[in-house]
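Customer ticket, subject: "Can you confirm the structure for Anaphase-promoting complex subunit 4?"

Message body: Hello, I'm evaluating your service for our small team and ran a test protein. I'd like someone to confirm that this is what the system normally returns, since I don't have a reference to compare against.
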Amino acid sequence: MSTFHVIKQLEDKNVQNEINVMVWSDRMDLVALSNIKGEVALHRLSWTRAWSLSPPKENLQVNAIAWRPDGKVLAVGYDSGEVLLIGIENKKTLNVKDARTEITCLAWVQEKVETKLKDTFTLKEEPPKNYMKYIDLSKLYLRDPVPNASLDSSNSEEAKETNFLQDQTELNLLLVGTKDGYVHIRVFGCFTCSILNMNEYLGTSCSVENIHVSEDLSKIFITVKDAEHNIKIIVLNGQIFKTHTQELFCVAIKYVKLVDLVKYLTNTIANITETWESFLLEIDHKLSKYAKKVPEGGVTADFLDLLTFGICSPELEEFLITDLTKKGLEKFGQTIEMSYANIQKLLLKNVTKFGQNLSYHLAELRGMARLEHRYDVIGLKEDQITKAIQSSGAFLIKAGEMQQIINHSVINYKAFFRWLYGAILFLMDETVPTEIHKITQQDLAYITEFLQNFDHIGNKDGQNTKGFIMERLGQYLADAPLVVLPNMDGNDWTSFLSENECIQNHPSILQHYKNTSLIQQFKELAVKIYDIFDAPKTALQVKFKPIYIFDCFNFGEVNLRMSSINITKEMILFAFLQPSTQFFLLQVHITDDKCLARCGKFHFTQLTEESPQIYDILDVAFYSNNILSLLLQDTTGYKSATILQFPLAPALEKLVEIDIAVDISKTALPNSNGSVVTPKLFKNTEMAGSVFAVSGSRRVGIVLSENKRKIKLFEMEAEEEDEEDADMSSSIIKEDVSMQENAVE
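Agent reply: Thanks for trying us out. I re-ran your input and got the following:
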């Protein structure tokens, strides 16, 4: 028995704010919406809201939304130029990229892989000249950084990008179109591999209206509108995505890993600096009141007098007994000890450990670059990566140097506090323990060194001095050259290099830059890493050559409503809405050596014999490669929108071949009445409509009312028996086969 489908209404809801963008997920029954306040919401088919996300800044509008092909990440493009990637499970901002100009459209695509046995990684010997397919196994022995609560910033650009790599087995591309005519191509949505200027291809300014990519990623169709509102389609050669899929996949993975590590280290170093500043503020808080009572240089002098001669000035005695106190000193010492311990922990377990991870990934990246026949074409340069590796080594050396300074400082402060504790007990006429009373010559040297910078504490204006050098540690956390250089005397390796300049200057030898701070060394490293991934933008740009440019239509200043879909690897269908009563169907068939195009236009006069009016066409979208969905609205009497499922197979028979060298708008095209095309499925929404969104894979649709404050959800292929109470406005011409089975030839 044949099965017949009807369109069934599921929900009818009012919304508080006007909706401007609606996009269905092709993997789940979820629809992403944005409103005029710039908020993005995710709703289920029952209209229950999964979450809502406020705009990153005030007064922003969402211009485009796209789903990652696996349905796990949402790309949101704002009129400010920012594109946010949002994890749908927890609405976490995974990445932020700024195109610095208004976003007009987004397309997130992935190569359509035929069903076949997946390649698996084995240790079996491979055929000659068949290089091992790249599989990143670093996670087996290099743990990715997991931020703690103090370092996590889930709603900022520093958020983790590791989610991009979850279940990513195929290359996917996020293409971002802008109002000033640029297309940004981003692998995994975050690695910008190329920025293309459509204005150069046209020789005039334009805006990007739509982006479509062929199934095998070999051709990119950019629909643009110039200053005179002429609509054109630029066909670019994207063979690089087909021939170098594996290479781009590899480099993008390394980009995600390295950028993630750079941002993590940035947060960690900021955390170390914050801990150090808290340490300085604690000392400043304790000593500044006393420092104001003595002349400049008096703080160190008073402590040295007490240390050397046992003489305590009245100001120092009052400070030690009244202000500091024995218990206060104990607490003060614990605070400083904890600060040092925290800095050491962050430096060893975070900076050094993940700095080594960074060096590993850079080394792997250099290994790729040495396969010049594969990676040179996408701009990966060994020399550039080697410089980054050298900078990474210098950064690790500087971190090790800082660790030695901390170890030395711990010895100094422990000796100082042990002595000062004994001095307070002596001034209070209490018994001084024997272990505290004994001070060696080495202890005196440690205490003296600790006292050297006490006169930097507090200034005469009553303001706290931040960033001053306390001992030698603080200078490593300043973006300035070191003031007190490390003493490398007696270091065998340093002596060996100084005696052998040929070895010292060898590129494999990591250099030690004595004058630079940790901050300076890290900034240099970050710049060199980002420079590595800037190179592909230039190298790949020349690969995207325009193959064809179609002169299409001119619909005036109105916003362009269009849709596109891949029928086969070589055939693409475009639907252009010409306000307000007709639409154009353009079929493009491109092979390696030729391009054929067919076009036709359609209008609608009646859907049933009882309604002989002419319909406005409000919106158009491909439901599947067999069906084009249309949102129609009668022009007489009460305005009511109708969803129509328009079969493509009979419609394509009405298209005529056109010359792609001639402006399509100047070509004589047949104007067919789409009302006579069968089979047809439609439903009256019983409200004035504006736009809609459909998903053939999920078999759902959503219609937005004219005032954009009301929506209706529909099941597009409900079983007829489920629609017992269907409205009389819903109709279907029944045949022995489902409309979905009418394949486009």
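A couple of notes from the result: The radius of gyration is 35 Å. The CA atoms of residues 279 and 336 lie 6 Å apart. Feel free to reply with more questions.
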